[in-house]
Write a structure and sequence with these properties.
Blueprint: H1 3-15, E1 27-31, E2 37-42, E3 47-56, H2 60-73, E4 82-87, E5 93-102, H3 108-127
Helix pairs in contact: 1-3, 2-3
Protein name: Type III secretion chaperone SycN
Length: 130
């Protein structure tokens, strides 16, 4: 088992998910009570993509515009956030905020920091009045 797998398993145990692991495609997804989704995905270049997806019921374009502006203005902070809009086959739209963590940096602490930052970042997008 590689370091990212061990890190994810340890994070899962600490969060109360005993068998949290990457699937055969290198992905892991958690659905939160708030409606948000937390996701992780391994890449071929030894990175882990960490993202939070926020469900959008309306004004997806306005949300995305605010997210792009926030990404531009916060690009010099510790985390470079990549925002995107995703639409699922059922027509639901999600605002995705993603950061990249190298395998060497990927630890339970760094994962918690990334998820906390992304959730606060999306809260700020929601509250922005650009």
């Amino acid at each position: 088992m590689s370091s990212p797998e061990l890190t994810l398993r340890q994070f899962g145990v600490e969060a109360g998910f005993e068998d949290l692991a990457f699937d055969s495609r290198g992905q892991a997804l958690l659905q939160l009570e708030s409606g948000r989704q937390l996701g992780l995905e391994r890449t071929a270049d030894r990175k882990v993509l960490v993202y939070v997806a926020h469900p959008l019921d309306y004004d997806a374009g306005a949300w995305l515009l605010r997210a792009w502006k926030r990404a531009h203005h916060s690009r010099l902070e510790d985390w470079a956030v990549q925002p995107a809009l995703r639409e699922t086959p059922d027509g639901r739209r999600w605002l995705v905020a993603l950061v990249r963590v190298t395998d060497d940096e990927f630890s339970p602490l760094r994962l918690r920091q990334a998820l906390d930052y992304l959730m606060r970042w999306q809260d700020a997008v929601r509250n922005d009045a650009y």
